[in-house]
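Hi team,

As requested, here is the filled-out complex form for the zinc ion run. I kept the field names the same as last time so the parser does not choke. Let me know if anything looks off before we queue the next batch.

— J.
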Amino acid sequence: MSEDFYSVLGVSQDAGEEEIKQAYREKASEYHPDVSDAPDAEEKFKQVQKAKEVLLDDEKRRMYDQMGHERFEQADKRGATDSGAGGMGGQGNPFGGGGGAGGMNDIFEQFFGGGSGGSQTGPRQGADLKTRLNIDLEDAYEGVTKQLTISRPERCPDCDGAGHPPDADANTCTACNGQGQQTTVRQTPLGRVQQAQTCRQCDGEGTIYSETCSTCRGEGQVREEATIQVDVPAGIHSGQTLRMEREGAPGENGGPKGDLLVEIQVEDIEAFERDGDDLQHRLAISFPQAVFGDTVEVPTLDGPVEMDIPAGTQSGETFRLRDEGMPRLQRRGYGNLFVKVQVVTPENLNEEQREALEAFAEAGGEEIDVEQGFFEKLKSSF
Ligand code: ZN
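And here is what came back:
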């Protein structure tokens, strides 16, 4: 179930053009897949775009208001699948090209005020795509090569990205007289404002084709699975992004592909806590080890090493093992491993241990009421 276009943008039914544009800019930047971490960001982003397309077009908005959301969506689907003019007063897909990756370029042009007529027909680089890759700490330590399978837009194989069969009849777009641009003149309080924008009917091509490619519904792109090899360098941190050049969405009009941005998520393991290039390990030692000192085994990502605990170590003391941390990304050397020791207090003593500890306390001149622990005292008070 898709959401009503007004609620998608969070505007009222009588919202004006400026209000809709403003709401669109806010929502689009919130859900832009390059920005948002939400899993449904791409879907939301598409809804926001579609809502804007319809609500900013007087004709479409009127029909939308009349038909209601569900019926409009159904009519739109039929219009997009039928070749030629559908019931929406336009050829093929009433929402124009865009869609998928092309739409992302559009939005940046809208944001930054670019989008001169020429860029619509000239080569245009495809959109960057974004995905995530989880690796574990050992892989981040060693560096790793991973196979990553993603679904991404590819140039439609049946029409080679044109959006129409090669033998389709080409007609000059009547909406823009083949210019690819429409000029609108609006009367505003500040005077007449002339605005040129990409023709929605032909998506700036200036040409309307008699048939739409049935494989890609005229988009020129289809989604396909691709497996990409990602070389993750040693020392990478969670949240860092690798840029895989030319692995993104296909370009338009012979433009190059966009890039694929792979955000790395490094999963912690039990034994270590990571802090930058340093690691921390918690080590439990016994009271005698703390008192007399000992040589203990400490795990590192490079295998166990020996560490000396000096006599008289206090619980909570931290020792540094130099260069036993993570490799420094794109630099030489390693971080440190900090070993924090905790002296474990024995909970269950056998008779011999008990006597030894009592003797220990006595020898130190300590008086401990060992015979009557807390619970014994409680009982005897009744
Ligand atoms: Zn196609």
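Two things worth flagging: The pocket of zinc ion is lined by residues 156, 158-159, 163, 213, 215-216, 220 (CB under 6 Å). The longest helix spans residues 17-31.

Thanks,
J.
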